[in-house]
Amino acid sequence: MTLPRIVSLFSGAGGLDLGFHQEGYEIAFAVDWMAAAVQTHKRNFPTTTSVAADITVRYEASGRLAVLDEIAKVLNDGEAIGIIGGPPCQGFSRANPNSRADDPRNQMPTFYIEIVEALQARYDVQFVLFENVMGIRDAKHSVTFRNILTRFKELELTAGVDEHSALDYGVPQTRNRVIISGFKSEAAARAFKPKTISREEVDLTVRGAIGHLPQPAFFSRALSADDIPAHPNHWTMNPRSKRFSGDSDDPAPTRSFRRLSWDKPSPTVAYGHREIHVHPDGARRLSIYEAMLLQGFPTSFVLDGTLSQQVEQVSNAVPPPVARSLAAATSAALTTTASDTQTVAA
């Protein structure tokens, strides 16, 4: 079976894309508003057309979303495609105590689905995968969540909603997310079952993920690539605060100084502005590379951009092992559909 080509919306650095790429999918097109994330995407997916753009921008005369013309440059009319992505989730996040149902960022799923509808008119959309935080299912966001499912139904996509823990995919962090899947084939939707692994079979501790690494480089304006050990992203901020004494195992006084435990999984890798978790030794914050490993990124993956931009990219990423299981389940579901079609034809 020939796999559909992938259109990635809100791609970020490409954590979700990487999982699909690892399962043999071609990432044909990717778009994100952050230029640094798109530069990262270009570095790690050199054959993909990766574009830095605001997907909400429309042509003034027609009202048509401009990104559709960018997508049309890389796809052939009528070809089979899959659409994946995770619209910005800060407005839905439970970590945001001020989250509101009327947060403007909560409109991003609407744009996502509008693009899906437009692409259906020109291409054979086999499936849609939509990732977001658990808070999108909270009561305060119920109208938005119901509208998403209603729109899937209107687009004749059989929807499924599941909650996934990164721990169940071998990723050493307590990250829980909602995946909304939509398949053109009802049979494929029924067959979509991502495989998990036993938590007892893998090392899900911070020690197992980053305990082998040397000390990272500390940021300075004179820092060069040659000064950074182990990996280009193994660097972090200078530990200026007195809290970085490394002497106390007491709970962090604030969220911004949350210290990891060597022998437990990391809390969710979703940092505020430079609020990177504190290393288990207590003397510094994690390096970007350590955060990447806690997200399940392979050692070959490299992030571009400033420290703040890299923090945002690693925080927003879908852990690649989770993404790969979703991709494998998608392939299995589509294969089931193709087999059923051939059986009927025979």
SSE blueprint and pairings:
Blueprint: E1 5-9, H1 15-22, E2 27-32, H2 35-44, E3 49-52, H3 67-72, E4 80-85, H4 108-120, E5 124-133, H5 142-154, E6 158-165, E7 173-174, E8 176-183, H6 186-191, H7 206-210, E9 217-218, E10 235-236, E11 266-267, H8 288-294, H9 307-316, H10 320-345
Helix pairs in contact: 1-10
Structure overview:
A 7-stranded mixed β-sheet has the order 3-2-1-4-5-8-6, with helices on both faces. Strands 7-11 form a two-stranded parallel ribbon. It has a domain at 5-195 and 319-345: 3-Layer(aba) Sandwich (Rossmann fold), CATH 3.40.50. Strand 1, helix 1 and strand 2 form a beta-alpha-beta unit. The chain is built from 10 helices and 11 strands. Helix content is 30%, strand content 16%. It has 346 residues and is of the alpha/beta class. The two termini are 17 Å apart.
What characteristics describe this protein?
Rossmann fold, 10 helices, alpha/beta, two-stranded parallel ribbon, 346 residues
SSE succession: EHEHEHEHEHEEEHHEEEHHH
Q: Report the CATH topology name of the domain at 5-195 and 319-345.
A: Rossmann fold
Strands, total number: 11
Q: Report the CATH architecture of the domain at 5-195 and 319-345.
A: 3-Layer(aba) Sandwich
The value of Rg in angstroms is 21 Å
Low-confidence stretches: none
Q: Quick gist of this model?
A:
This protein has helices at residues 15-22, 35-44, 67-72, 108-120, 142-154, 186-191, 206-210, 288-294, 307-316, 320-345, and strands at residues 5-9, 27-32, 49-52, 80-85, 124-133, 158-165, 173-174, 176-183, 217-218, 235-236, 266-267. It has 346 residues and is of the alpha/beta class.
